[in-house]
Amino acid sequence: MKWIEQITPKQMTEELGIPYHGWMREMDRCWSDENSQYCVTSRLLRTELGKVEHVCITSVNGCGKSDGSGDIPWAVKQEIKNDLFGEKRCAIEVFPTQNRLVDMADCYHLWVFEKGFELPFGIHPKDKKTTPVNRGSTRMRCVTSDGREISMKDMLENTGSLGVMHDTYADGMMNFLANNQLKGSV
């Protein structure tokens, strides 16, 4: 996307007397895309994790609403983060505890860290390694028609379905890998 700088909420407050409140009055950067589909504002914060850019993204479809009509797909947020703040910077979107939820408009907040910052977890092979926590048994139990409790594996073996489950999973994974061009030599 191509971005155009706009007058910021901070400038509108300080220079034009427009009464923005709270964190919005601190937003000192503002862009809209060339199609006027998205508006992005930001402010730079100093935190115990270093400098963090607070980014607010809104869609023209949801401007002034809080009904989900301004939903922004993940891929668009990633593109915005890359375009305006850089491909080499990590950002997070927070889902707060319910008692800290601020949901007055369809706007989405990213918290963009400084270059070189790494989260202490992730799913990419280059991310910091983590150790899964064993939460105990995940075995599912089944109850037969005569009231006996047996394991899921036993039930699938008794009905001749164990191989079907394996084959269905394997076929699904091969299709996913092929469709996403991740298939290597098998």
Structure description:
This protein is of the alpha+beta class and 186 residues long. The chain has four helices and eight strands, in the order βαβββαββββαα. The strands form two sheets. It has a six-stranded antiparallel sheet, covered by helices on one side. β3 and β4 form a beta hairpin.
Task: Provide a quick synopsis of the model.
Helix content is 25%, strand content 23%. It contains four helices and eight strands. The radius of gyration is 24 Å and the shape is elongated.
Category by helix and strand content: alpha+beta
Strands across the major sheet, in which order? 1-2-3-4-6-5
Please outline the major beta sheet.
Answer: 6 strands, antiparallel
**Chain-averaged pLDDT:** 86
What is the alpha-carbon Rg in Å?
24 Å
Q: β content, as a range? A: 15-25%
> Which residue ranges are poorly predicted, with pLDDT under 50 across at least 5 consecutive positions?
none
